[in-house]
Design goal:
The chain has helices at 21-39, 65-74, 86-100, 130-136, and strands spanning 12-18, 46-53, 56-63, 106-111. By secondary structure, the protein is an alpha+beta fold. The chain has a single domain (12-115), classed as Alpha-Beta Plaits (2-Layer Sandwich). A 4-stranded antiparallel β-sheet has the order 2-3-1-4. The chain is elongated and about 75 Å long.
């Protein structure tokens, strides 16, 4: 069987675990919807189960990076969270927001969209001028 991969925009994938995902899924969707309203954006996101293990139900939350970046301008306290990347800081902030609402989810950043590059990324024209070329002749 030939499968054609689905073309999908880059997304930030967050994995999480909770006790009863079917009951908690609505709360997660509502909270992300509230964040969309706060950011005044409408983006696509997904929240789906990935399995059950040892009494925990695992799920993935796929978010559009545009939502995350727009939330950084609205909530400056996100920058105070620990993490070297904006996405990591967002996941820590999101976990804290869930705990404030007395929702117990354990979240972890799973995948971050990266820019595909090939070859030399720096523009050599920005690092040399005509006088340098004259010296080399």
């Amino acid at each position: 069987m030939n499968r054609i991969p689905a073309k999908r925009d880059p997304v930030i994938v967050i994995t999480g675990s909770c006790q009863n995902f079917e009951k908690e899924r609505g709360k997660i969707i509502k909270f992300i919807g509230d964040l969309e309203l706060g950011a005044k954006t409408k983006v696509e996101f997904q929240c789906y189960s990935t399995g059950i293990s040892m009494g925990w139900e695992f799920f993935e939350l796929c978010l559009d990076p545009d939502l995350v970046y727009s939330l950084f301008s609205i909530f400056p306290d996100m920058k105070k969270e620990e993490g070297s990347m904006l996405e990591q800081q967002f996941v820590h902030w999101l976990s804290r927001q869930f705990k404030k609402r007395k929702l117990e989810y354990y979240l972890k950043l799973n995948d971050v969209p990266r820019e595909r590059t090939s070859g030399f990324r720096l523009d050599p024209n920005n690092y040399r001028d005509d006088s340098l070329l004259e010296e080399w002749r």
